[in-house]
Design goal:
- About 75% of the residues lie in helices and about 0% in strands.
- The protein contains seven helices and no strands.
- Helix 3 runs antiparallel to helix 4 (about 50-80), helix 3 (about 30-50) runs parallel beside helix 5 (about 85-105) and helix 5 (about 85-105) packs antiparallel against helix 6.
Length: about 160
């Protein structure tokens, strides 16, 4: 595994206690997906309305929460046998909405063209991957070296 995806198992292990508690309390994976979008919206609001120096801590905390929710929703669905196509689509839409919401918070700090370009760059690989999955291709995750290798070798 290359890139940041190599850290995913380590991070998932750190969240195992929270995941077990969520299973015990019968929390829906969809609730966690929604919570991730809300955390992203909170980070965007902090970027928009708080002075730059004061925004750093709330944005960091909210993005850390967003990352945890993004990790936990799928894990919870798998742990509880609640994986569905609908849930997978909701998860992906929630992730892309969260990405775009956070980037929208930068509209207070950067020109529209730059924020729009960042939004496209941040989400286009996922949209292409989802289109491929919808066409029946396997979905693969990996860092940029792995993606370059797949592009060159057709894998």
């Amino acid at each position: 595994m290359n890139g940041l995806y190599a850290l995913k198992p380590w991070y998932a292990d750190r969240l195992s206690g929270a995941r077990a508690a969520l299973v015990r309390h019968e929390v829906s994976p969809d609730t966690l997906t929604a919570a991730g979008v809300v955390a992203a919206a909170g980070a965007a609001a902090a970027l928009t309305w708080l002075p730059t120096g004061l925004a750093a801590l709330p944005v960091a905390v909210l993005l850390a929460a967003r990352l945890a929710f993004a990790n936990l929703d799928g894990a919870l669905a798998r742990d509880t046998g609640r994986t569905t196509r609908r849930g997978a689509v909701l998860n992906e839409l929630g992730d892309r909405a969260a990405d775009l919401l956070v980037l929208a918070g930068f509209l207070a700090l950067a020109p529209l063209w730059l924020v729009a370009a960042a939004g496209l760059a941040a989400t286009l690989p996922s949209w292409v991957s989802l289109a491929g999955a919808a066409a029946g291709a396997p979905r693969r995750n990996g860092g940029s070296p792995r993606r370059r290798r797949r592009a060159v070798h057709g894998r």
